[in-house]
Design goal:
Helix content: 25-40%
Strand order of the largest sheet: 1-2
Mean pLDDT: 77
Radius of gyration: 18 Å
Number of helices: 7
Distance between the termini: 44 Å
Order of helices and strands: HHHHEEHHH
Low-confidence stretches: 1-48
């Protein structure tokens, strides 16, 4: 049974013998309140998690990745070892469009910055006929994506302009780059 089908069944009130794809918000953390945070092993003993309040220059890329990893583990109910910089949000981690809102919200909380609508994940680019024609991203579409998403590596999309490949540019590394840029601009 797919995640989508399971969610449809749960929403329809039919109870099966499967477990929902995502736990109820706060459920895991409430039971593990005294346990070490998911990436405590990544930090030296006695070191605390760094946040934006300590200044953007204080956070290393690895610390930003650790915070992004925690956000994705919480938002997508995935194992932390699956959250690597090369992992795609949709293909590898199973994110859906509604998850992008949750990820944006959780990143705002984790890093204490504001993400404007369409800033992290541009909206409706694939539906614009000037940007996509015959299932391929146009030159104008690619230029628009690059302008809206300076935190993304477009190498793979430049090699294969298929609109289905746009999702592949959204990686964990993309989120880390985005957070780095937001923190540096603060």
């Amino acid at each position: 049974m797919t995640k989508t089908r399971l969610r449809q069944e749960l929403a329809g009130g039919r109870v099966g013998h499967t477990i929902p794809a995502r736990p109820a918000p706060g459920r895991i953390r409430a039971h593990a309140a005294d346990a070490a945070p998911p990436h405590a092993a990544d930090r030296s003993p006695g070191a605390k998690k760094k946040t934006r309040e300590e200044g953007p220059a204080e956070m290393t890329r690895e610390e930003i990745l650790s915070n992004v990893r925690e956000v994705l583990v919480d938002a997508l109910a995935v194992d932390d070892e699956d959250v690597t910089e090369d992992a795609t949000l949709i293909g590898d981690l199973g994110a859906e469009s509604i998850d992008m809102l949750d990820i944006s919200f959780k990143l705002e909380q984790a890093f204490d910055f504001k993400i404007e609508q369409g800033e992290l994940f541009p909206e409706n680019v694939a539906q614009d006929p000037e940007y996509v024609q015959e299932g391929k991203v146009t030159d104008k579409g690619l230029a628009e994506l690059k302008a809206k998403m300076p935190h993304v590596d477009f190498t793979k999309l430049e090699a294969d302009r298929s609109v289905t490949k746009v999702a592949d540019i959204l990686t964990v590394g993309t989120l880390v780059n985005f957070c780095e840029q937001k923190l540096q601009a603060a």
